[in-house]
Amino acid sequence: MEKENKFEGKIIIFTAPSGSGKTTIVRHLLKKYEFLGFSVSATSRKKRPKEIDGKDYYFLTPEKFQKKVDQDAFVEWEEVYPDKFYGTLKSEIERVWSKNKHVVFDIEVKGATNIKELYPDNSLAVFICPPSISELRRRLTNRKTETESSLKKRLDRAKEEMTYENKFDKVIINDLLEVALEEAEQIIESFCIN
Ligand code: ADP
Ligand code: 5GP
Fold it and tell me: How many angstroms does the Cα of residue 172 sit away from the middle of ligand 1?
């Protein structure tokens, strides 16, 4: 009898300070590799104009987010910025694996550490490093999604997040985007295609 080819789902976590280029890199990989699926996080922050509810995030009111916390619906969640909550729903990983796709996360450093600990055998965590804090400030300013106050919160947090660099399996320095994308592709191919 022929042996059944059972799908073994993997997890690839992209983590970094805000503005380092995670979303840009993850979107590129999802477009290029059909065998990847995105873990859509829930958040209580406001939707940005180009974002789509259910695709980029599940946008929840703070009350609905809290209700899901009470229902124990999250694998992990964090108050990433004051009063701005983000979390991975337990249902997400299974949703992506059920389509025979490996799960890709775009998540901050503490959540990334938690996911890595929960799935030590089939996960890979990649830290995206900006060339400098001043370049991070420039990119976040150019992105035009932040107010002066939220920009400051993101940059303050980024300085702490940079200290996590050595805790992950791989590091990509996102200086020239084309180079970073190529490195990300190589990491995906060697982890997922064997
Ligand atoms: P994150 O998801 O980590 O917050 P984004 O992917 O939104 O970061 O990138 C932040 C901003 O920087 C975006 O406007 C993006 O187009 C830009 N960006 C990303 N990578 C580079 C790069 N290598 N060089 C210049 N700008 C970049
Ligand atoms: P942004 O507001 O820029 O979309 O995201 C802010 C930060 O929250 C980013 O570092 C992003 O990766 C992180 N984040 C997104 N989803 C989750 C999640 O489900 N859990 C945790 N812990 N962080 C998340």
Answer: 13
